[in-house]
Structure formats: structure tokens, C-alpha cells
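job 3f2a | input accepted
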Amino acid sequence: MKTRRALDPRDLAKVAVFAALIAVLGLPGAIPVFGGAVPITAQTLGVMLAGAILGPSLGALSVIVFEVLVALGLPLLSGGRGGLSVFVGPSAGYLIGWIAGSFVIGLILWSSGRKPTWLRAFVACLVGGIGVIYAIGIPVQAWVTHIPIPQTALLSLAFIPGDILKAVLAATITMVLWRAYPPAFSAYNKRRVAKDPADTMVDV
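job 3f2a | predicted structure (204 res):
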């Protein structure tokens, strides 16, 4: 039995596009909070979209590619930050959380094999794009800054309104793209082919 390669050129192209999207969303800059230790950035929207549109594996891979470029020194994070130093600073946990968060978003939205809905996309972005990222980011930030976790979590409330807005936008963009071009959603299409290899058509 022949098995499909984990990544084909189209998968690689999508990963590259979303890594670039996350980088572009850093161009507007960042709003510093906590005395500048951790900035509010639009790049989390790109992380949400990567998981929602590409699915768990490709979504997480696109974030990994982006962060490898950052680690190599490219100033792709908001505010022109880059280099290994950002992975040992207060925002290090959030960067790790971006990878896990995009994976969880894709898992929630696509693991059932069902067509997406706006509500499920929104919930996925809330859980993965906010809950998972905070669950990793807050303890690491507290450890690096020597601020107790409860106090760090309280300070993190400044992020919540903006992150909820990003979740709304990500869910909306996901559904608009789904209605316009379903073949863009690799996770759904691969599951469908796996269930019925003869069925290569995508419902609109």
C-alpha cells in the first residue's frame, strides 16, 4: 500500500506563507505592557489562523519555521526583535505557547473530520490561542521576572480583550476562506481522502 508523504510541495508552500504572515503581522509594532517585558502583538492572530486553516501539524510547523528564523537572528518579532535572547526572556513561554496553541486550535477544529463552523473555530482559538498560550507563557514569565504566578496572571488580564478580538477575527477569516476556497484546508481534505480515497471532491 502506498502512503502519502507527510509533506508535499503544496504543504511546504502553505507553511511558508503562514510563517511569512506571522512575520508580517509583526510589522505594525507592539504595545509594551508590564514595563515593556511582554508586548501586545498582532502576531498571535497569525498563530490562530495557522492552526485554524492549516490544521494541527502544518499550523504548528509554520510557527516553528517562523521561530527558527527568529532564533537565527532575523528581527521578525514585533518591535524588530530577534535572536536567541528572546527565547530566554519574559516572553519565551509565550513563544513556546504559540507552537502548542496552533496545534491545539487545529486539533479542536479538525480532529472530528467535520466541516468547520464559526462557533467551533472561535472556541478553538479561545482554547488554543489564549488558554494554551497563557498556560505556558504565564509560569515562564513569572519564573524569569521573579513575580509570583498569581500576580503575573492578574497582570496578563491586559491581554484578554485584544486576544478575544483576535479570536473573533481568526474565526471569521477562517469561515470566509472556507466558503470561498475549501481546498485551502489541508487538514479537512486529507481526512476526507483518508476515509474515502476515491472521493477527491471537496464540498462547498
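job 3f2a | The two ends are 30 Å apart (CA to CA).
job 3f2a | closed
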